[in-house]
Amino acid sequence: MSHYLLLLISLTVASIASVITYFISRKKTWKSGLKVYGIILIVFFFVRYFSYPDQARNIVGLIDGPFSAGVNFFALIGIWIELTLIVLLVLYPFFKLNIIKHLIKFVLTPLFLLYLGFSHFSVSMQLIGYNEEVLGWTFPHIMFLVTTALIMYGLFLVWKKDYSFKLKKEELIRLLIAIVPVFLASMPMYSLQIIFGSQLARYKVVDLSSTHRIFIYISIIVPFLIYFGLYKKDEESKRFAMTYLSLVTMITFAANFYYLDFLTPWSWPIHLCNTAMFLLPLIIIFRMDKLFYFTYFINVFGALMAMLMPNYNATTSYTSFTVIQFWYNHAIAYFVPLLLVGLKLFERPKMKQMFYSLLAFSGYFILVIILNSWFSNYATGVDFFFTNSDFIADKLGKWARNIFAINVSFNIGDLNFEFHPLYQVLFLLVYVGVAFAMWFVYSLGYSISDSLVALRFEQKRIKLSEFALQAALNGRSKEEPMEADSGVKLELRNFSKKYGRSEHFAVKDASLTVYGGEIFGFLGPNGAGKSTTIKAIVGIHTITEGSIFVCGFDVEKQPVMAKQQIGYVPDHYALYEKLTAREYINYIADIYSVTNEERQKRIPYYTKLFNLEEAFDNQIKTFSHGMKQKVAIIAALIHEPKLWLLDEPLTGLDPDSIYQVKEVMKHHASKGNIVMFSSHLIDVVENLCQRIVVIKKGHLFEPIPLKEVHEKTTLEQYYLNKVYEEKKDE
Q1: Domains plus CATH for the chain?
Q2: Is 151 exposed, middle or buried (0-12, 13-18, 19+ CB in 10 A)?
Q3: Which of these, 77, 345, 37, lies nearest to 195 by C-alpha position?
Q4: Residue 135 has pLDDT above 50, yes or no
Q5: What are φ and ψ of residue 676, in 5° steps?
Q6: pTM tops 0.70, yes or no
């Protein structure tokens, strides 16, 4: 066949594609036309790809090909460039990412045009369809020309849409970074074999040798590198990266197959890890959740086990096509499903999905057993998922081989069926059991992912808080209160708190002002939101909406300075009980930068007041509940806080201790400080507080002076009215 006729065929196909693209883009959109073009391109590529076995995989060394070593090398590079370019041209209209366009325009266009100058037609076509016994042009050669014409037309479409040569600095950096992973992912599996030949044959990748372990380490490290490279990206960038990776992997894996293979079912990729190569692109492109969870629970473990026990010849060099393809494909089957969950492209599975996946696997397993026995009548070595040979049994020892030797055989017509029932049942049970155990490994991965996301969120929050604080202070020192003239005052401004993904607020739109010199009571039933509010004031809980100010310091934007103003006694104290009371109080004093001179005055005062002088140098673990509560109170007061917050401080104290705590409250407030406490003891609140507020189901009522309460009723009756009688209004 003449070169002119081949050129005419390829130009005709490209013209037809251009006409189709033009009419679709006129009736719909330009992107729609590009999508149709992409589908035409990939169809022609696959027709060519499966029309003749890829002979390049049989070339062992550059000098063994049909041409000289240099020409063979350029032919290999051309095949590599062509595959990368085809996949990017196909994906380009489906993703709104400039990086795809930049790769096509500024990297692959010049490489492809440069490659065409190195006798592209006469080298790559013959390398792919190389056969010493067949001379002249073949169908794959014609299809090669057709796909080349379609590629040229695709480049024209991309440049026609944007013919600018400009690249911003950040776009250039992203482009340079993207080049390496893009080309590594699309590398033909026979590249190392052709380049290095069998020079490195002494290094074997079996039996956990040093080389085998290096391959395992690489397979574990690579997904972490991909994850850290992508986890900050937007969802579309993540989806493109995973789609590209799975698609080029499927294409390079398909180099094993020829269209005649599909006429012999025993040649189909039914082996579990082989099916993953074809399933992953479909799962990602069409977002097939149910099929994804099957690969997630079944393929990941299967691929991991295969990497630990590779099933190729022990004498095979690690540069060979067989070894590289085995490791590349199994590594993809192992880590891509994990990445898809880690990058949040698919939701984390639940136990129900695992159960259904294992049911589906059981069905697949039974089918494979039947197919193995059936197809063994037509071909030797049929062993999908290693259920038809002693490959795995041999690695486990004599006992496993003995179990495998138990077989059942019968004939159906001319066909013989042989099974190993005990071995195959145990195989299934062990696989299912280990798959359940893998759930704990996944849980660990989830925890790591959550920690990274939380850390990233916290870093962003801190940066935003810093910017907001600098703007609000307008040049003033960070140690100054945001509201300079606030004085001793606690303010809640439309404060709301919601936990996690809950739809309900624990506290909603709470506003409150408490002034210096007040002892303020905070009342409400259990679960009303008292502790939530107090913990938000001291910075233990984040603020969902609104703001809180302590002496002019914003609790959210100035957390350290706000905490310096607060002394907090929680409802459940947590002390370092192996320390003595003195050591613990000094430790807290160090945190708040209390001077030695101030400690010498305050520590003796409080130890005498609370009758702790004799026990103060004993370990806290020897103290009673009341004594520990007193230590917690001293720790909260050692730095003379402007705001003293107590959450149920009198619970479990004896009458003497209650009296002492009440006296300390009065004394602290008399110095112009705020004392605010929650309590269920109505009489204590009534005797101590100037004002109180009631909280019910996260909603604050209007604060009220106790004098106004006493003019109408008792505090107990007022509280009961607010909490119970107003249910009628709900």
Answers
A1: 1-197 (no CATH), 200-475 (no CATH), 480-565+642-651+669-730 (3.40.50.300), 572-640 (no CATH)
A2: buried
A3: 77
A4: no
A5: -130, 125
A6: no
> What is the rounded distance in angstroms from the CA atom of residue 550 to the CA atom of residue 162?
57
Going by DSSP bridges, is the β-strand pair 643-647/566-569 parallel, antiparallel, or unpaired?
parallel
Mean pLDDT of 591-615: 91
- Reported as half-sphere exposure (CB side, CA atoms, 13 A), residue 451 has a value of 6
Helix ranges, 316-411 (H): 321-342, 351-375, 391-396, 398-405
Which of helix, strand or coil describes residue 659?
helix
DSSP 64: G
547 close to 603: Cβ distance less than 8 angstroms: no
- Give the pLDDT confidence of 268-286 residue by residue, as tens digits: 888 888 888 999 999 999 9
CA 591 to chain centre: 37
* Whole-number Å distance between alpha carbons of 676 and 548: 15
Rounded to 5°, angle at Cα 284 from 279 and 288 = 75
Residues ≥6 apart with Cβ < 8 Å to 101: 92, 158, 162
Average pLDDT over residues 445-471: 71
For the record, the structure tokens of 694 come out as 């009631």
Please give the DSSP secondary-structure letter assigned to residue 415: E
Crossing angle between the packed helical segments 272-286 and 300-308, to the nearest 10 degrees: 140
In this structure, are residues 336 and 185 in contact, taking their beta carbons and an 8 Å threshold?
A: no
* β-pair type (643-647, 674-678): parallel
- Return the closest-CA partner of residue 151 out of 111, 188, 178, 97: 111
